[in-house]
Specification:
Layout lengths: L3 E5 L6 H11 L2 E4 H9 L6 H8 L12 H10 L1 H23 L8 E4 L3 H4 L8 E6 L2 H11 L4 H10 L3 H7 L2 E4 L4 H16 L2
Parallel strand pairs: 1-3, 1-4, 2-3, 4-5
Length: 198
Amino acid sequence: MIACYGLTGGIGSGKSTVAKLFESKGARIVDTDVISHDLTAANGLALPAIRQEFGDTFIGQDGALDRDRMRTLVFSDRAALHRLQAILHPMILEQAKSCANTPTGAPYTLVVVPLLFESGRYRDWLSGVIVVDCPEELQIARTLQRSALDEPTVRAIMAQQLDRGSRLRQADETILNDGSLMQLEHRVCEMHKRLAGC
């Protein structure tokens, strides 16, 4: 099996941008956010368990998880967050491993996991973990710019994630994303060369 690395970082750090840059260099990307969305879309594999645990009010008119309602609940109720994670995290991990184990011509696989350290489920099968890092005020500014979330909500999300210092201490590799896209692409290119053995 080819080497498999985790890619993580706080909200607004630029994980998606970094993942796209790695993909453009030839890495295979397995995105757990995409897996999570599939699991909670209409007819998603996680919906029966979510419906049983939380009730019909958390399933939208379209048959998918009502994300806004669920987000409101889990930000105000930590026990509810853990109940949701207990349903989703094992299913996401199983599908991520399955995707990472399929044959590929890529030199390595990057598994993008927003809550990689928090979940405690990934380190044992990854060759290493790359953290995308930037100052916290930049995280907030970027998230406000790209989403409909307000600042208190963004700060609440950040409060539920590992703090910046703890993430950096657990990182095997770090990509600083505090400048231009050109700077970021250069940093990704240099790391890709090392990971791919170029």
